[in-house]
Specification:
elongated; three-stranded antiparallel β-sheet; about 15% helix; Pseudouridine synthase; Structural Genomics Hypothetical 15.5 Kd Protein In mrcA-pckA Intergenic Region, Chain A; single chain; 6 helices; catalytic activity, acting on RNA; RNA pseudouridylate synthase; ten-stranded mixed β-sheet; alpha+beta
Length: about 300
C-alpha cells in the first residue's frame, strides 16, 4: 500500500446510510480567500445560502473534527469533509442474502434493480451502501460489478487491504462466471457456441453498440441453449471478456434479447419505482482460486429463473 494511501485523511463524520461524507481537497489556486468561497463554486448543486447553512450547522469539518465556518481561511492542499445531502430514492423491495462470509470477503445474492455501487441517481439504494449499513461493514467495497438490473452472485471485500488481490482476479480474467438467461429460442445453440463481436460504448448513450463491420472483435461470449420453454429458451452464458452490457447486447444482436430488458433492442421508459418486470439475467455461479488461501472456490446463487418482480 502506498504511503499516500496509508495517510489519506479520514472523515470526522460517521457514514450515513452506508455513504461516506464528501472529501474535498483544496486545490493550489489563489482564487479563493475562504473555504466558503471555494465551496460555493465547487458545490454547484447548492445555493450560496445552502452552503452557509451547512457551515453554520457544523456539516463541514477538517479531518481532526475542527468545524469549518464562513470565515475559515482557504489553505491550498488541505482537505475538508462535507456531510452529504441525500435525494429521495425508491426503496428496492428485495433483500440481499449472504452466500458466504469470511474475514476477507462477503459474497451476496444481489437482487434485480439494485445497483452495485453508488453512482448517479442511485446512492443509498445500492448493494454497497445497504450492506455497509445493514451488516455494520463500513469498509465494504465491490471486487467487481453487476449491472443494476442483473441478479446473482456479487463478491465484495471487507477491508482495503484485500481489495487489490480480489479486484485483480476479475481484472485479469481469472474468474469463471456463468450466467443464466431467458430469451427467445434460437435454433443453432444446442452446443456451446463462441460469439465474437466488436462492442462500443459511446459516452452519453445508454446502450452498447454492436459494430458489425468492425474487423477486430473485442468481446467473446460462450452461449449454449440448455432448455426450451415454448417460444423461449434458457441459456447458459459465459463471458470470456467483460465489456459493458456484453451479454445483453450480444443476445439482442443475435435476435434473442433477454426477457425483461428495457434497453435492448430498444429503450423503454420504465419508472424508477417500477419493480414488476426484472431482467431475466442471473449471475448463477462464480469460480476462482482464492488469491490468499490459493484454494479453488465456487459460489452459487440461490435464485432461479424466472426472476420474480414486485407489483406496485
Amino acid at each position: 500500500m502506498s504511503r499516500s494511501r496509508r495517510h489519506r485523511p479520514r472523515s470526522p463524520f460517521p457514514q450515513e446510510h452506508g455513504i461516506d461524507a464528501m472529501r474535498i481537497s483544496l486545490p493550489h489556486n489563489d482564487s479563493w480567500t475562504t473555504v466558503r468561497d471555494h465551496l460555493v463554486e465547487r458545490l454547484s448543486a447548492l445555493t450560496p445560502d445552502e452552503v452557509d447553512a451547512k457551515l453554520d450547522a457544523g456539516d463541514v469539518a477538517e479531518p481532526d473534527g475542527t468545524q469549518v465556518g464562513r470565515s475559515t481561511p482557504y489553505v491550498a492542499g488541505r482537505v475538508v469533509f462535507v456531510r452529504r445531502e441525500f435525494a429521495p430514492e425508491p426503496v428496492v423491495p428485495f433483500g440481499i442474502p449472504v452466500i458466504h462470509e469470511d474475514e476477507r470477503i462477503l459474497v451476496v445474492d444481489k437482487p434485480p434493480f439494485l445497483a452495485t455501487m453508488p453512482r448517479g441517481s442511485h446512492i443509498v439504494q445500492t448493494a454497497v451502501a445497504r450492506l455497509r449499513d445493514e451488516l455494520d461493514l463500513p469498509l465494504l467495497s465491490p471486487a467487481h460489478r453487476l449491472d443494476r438490473l442483473t441478479s446473482g452472485v456479487l463478491v465484495l471485500t471487507k477491508d482495503p487491504r484485500w481489495r487489490g488481490p480480489y479486484q485483480e482476479l476479475f481484472a485479469t480474467r481469472r474468474v469463471v462466471k456463468t450466467y443464466l438467461a431467458l430469451a427467445p429460442a434460437l435454433e443453432d445453440f444446442d452446443q456451446t457456441t463462441d460469439v465474437y463481436l466488436h462492442l462500443t460504448k459511446v459516452h452519453g448513450e445508454h446502450a452498447t453498440r454492436v459494430e458489425v463491420a468492425h474487423p477486430e472483435p473485442n468481446s467473446h461470449t460462450r452461449i449454449r441453449r440448455v432448455e426450451h420453454r415454448g417460444d423461449d429458451a434458457r441459456y447458459e452464458l459465459r463471458p470470456v471478456t467483460g465489456r459493458t452490457h456484453q451479454l445483453r447486447a450480444t443476445m439482442s444482436h443475435l435476435g434473442a434479447p433477454i426477457i425483461g430488458d428495457p434497453l435492448y433492442p430498444r429503450q423503454l421508459q420504465v419508472a424508477r419505482s417500477d419493480f414488476s418486470t426484472p431482467l431475466q439475467l442471473l449471475a448463477a455461479t462464480i469460480e476462482f482460486v482464492d488469491p490468499v488461501t490459493k484454494e479453488p472456490v465456487s459460489h452459487r446463487s440461490g435464485r432461479r429463473l424466472p426472476v420474480c418482480g414486485v407489483s406496485s
